[in-house]
Design goal:
- InterPro entries: Ala_racemase_N, PLP-binding_barrel, PyrdxlP_homeostasis.
- This is Pyridoxal phosphate homeostasis protein.
- Pyridoxal 5'-phosphate (PLP)-binding protein, which is involved in PLP homeostasis.
- Belongs to the pyridoxal phosphate-binding protein YggS/PROSC family.
- The structure is a single chain.
- By secondary structure, the chain is of the alpha/beta class.
- 42% of the residues lie in helices and 15% in strands.
- The longest helix is centred in the first third of the chain and has 15 residues.
- The mean pLDDT is 96.
């Protein structure tokens, strides 16, 4: 299983960066993975998972949570505003807060349900027109508007452009978080999580390196 290897690499990266042991949360990205692969990771006592699609997560996790208590479930994919109710019901953290329409829906559902998932604002660090996320220079106003709604974002998330060195993007996100007093950084995936840890990541999102390649067929 890749889980043990990834955990060893995270521990080594924490030590190399002078970080406290256990200061980085490993989110095992289980989207589109076969049941036996995910349950093997659950059997190995890992409890933090990430999903990209609300409907897929609704079909899997209520049953698995009854068998494996203590699961911490993170929404890491684009979130449609009309799925806000289900997302607040199901997820313990939402990493993709990226627009005011969604912020208003989440604020409404958090108030109605009395559940308060941890919120990360997605920042489009590469200024990519096809990618979701707030632009870096929009963050101060967006964060203030979220707080006016009663939301309390605790961190930032980014997905660097595929064809670029991720390091400048991780450093930009780290600096933005520091400027705004946000303690959490969701950055780093299978190919670059060690670089992200060196730059202060508190949450890394690793899928294929744990579970194996996804089959979208």
């Amino acid at each position: 299983m890749g889980l043990d290897d990834i955990k060893r690499r995270i521990s080594a990266a924490e030590e190399k960066a002078g970080r406290a042991p256990g200061s980085v949360t490993l989110i095992a990205v289980s989207k589109v993975q076969p049941e036996d692969r995910v349950t093997a990771v659950l059997d190995a006592a890992h409890r933090v998972f990430g999903e990209n699609y609300v409907q897929e997560a609704q079909g899997k996790w209520p049953g698995w949570r009854s068998r494996w208590p203590g699961v911490d479930l993170h929404m890491i994919g684009p979130l449609q505003s009309n799925k806000a109710r289900a997302a607040v019901e199901l997820f313990d953290a939402i990493h993709t807060l990226d627009r005011m329409t969604l912020a208003r829906k989440l604020a409404q559902q958090i108030e109605q349900q009395g559940r308060s998932p941890q919120l990360f604002i997605q920042v489009n660090t590469g200024d990519e027109p096809q990618k979701a996320g707030i632009l870096a220079d929009e963050l101060p106003v967006f964060l203030s508007s979220c707080r006016d709604l009663g939301l309390s974002p605790q961190g930032l998330m980014c997905i660097p452009p595929e064809d670029q060195d991720p390091l400048p993007h991780f450093r930009l996100l780290r600096d933005l978080a520091a400027d705004h007093g946000l303690p959490n950084l969701s950055m780093g995936m299978s190919a670059d999580f060690e670089t992200a840890i060196a730059e202060g990541a508190t949450h890394v999102r690793v899928g294929s390196a744990i579970f194996g390649a996804r089959d979208y067929g």
